[in-house]
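Checklist before submission:
- one chain only
- standard amino acids only
- sequence pasted in full

Submission:
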Amino acid sequence: MKNYKLILFDLDGTLTDTQAGIVNSLRHALKRLDLPPRETHELIPFIGPPLLDSFMKYCGLDEPLARKAITIYREYYSRRGVYEATVYAGLPELLERLNRQGKKLVVATAKATYFAEKLLAHFKLDHHFSLIMGSNLDGTRANKAEVIACALQAAGNGRESGPAIMVGDRKYDIRGAKANGISAAAVTYGFGSREELAAADPDFIASTIPELAAILLERG
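Returned file contents:
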């Protein structure tokens, strides 16, 4: 197993359980647009991919209406939804241990950077990371491979830090890592199923925080 010095983390479903806030924000948007309500399990697929793609794919909206849906979604999310989340048990301790070992930690998320920074600051996790890289509020840099590429470039492409790995809970994280030539660790405690993640062919699969720790921490 490589000694990974640069570790990129997804946010939703990897560092924090953000389901409640995202689902409530989606329901707010659907109601405001007079669209049919959806059950929770129908809204889970929205978590991970760019919102624009999800509103168009799962709600059948054209691009202008999907962008309006995002604006309405953010009305709720910025006020309440961003705080309707929890940190996965054991995650802060893992980040602290990684910091002590001198690992360079980065967040690479499809969530807008503004909201990612707000969420991590709220839960007092932001100090663990040297960089928080997300999408732009105007909808650009939303593709996960692009986010990872930008994060790697800003972090020195791993040349200064050593081998790099992406940790995430959806196939987009794994595919994005592969597109950028770095290792990938899939976590199954988030929003992606084991089947989805296994099909993306990650280098590692972890079901729990301790299993993830065994992949990322140096031994001895």
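Reviewer check: The chain is about 45% helix and 15% strand.
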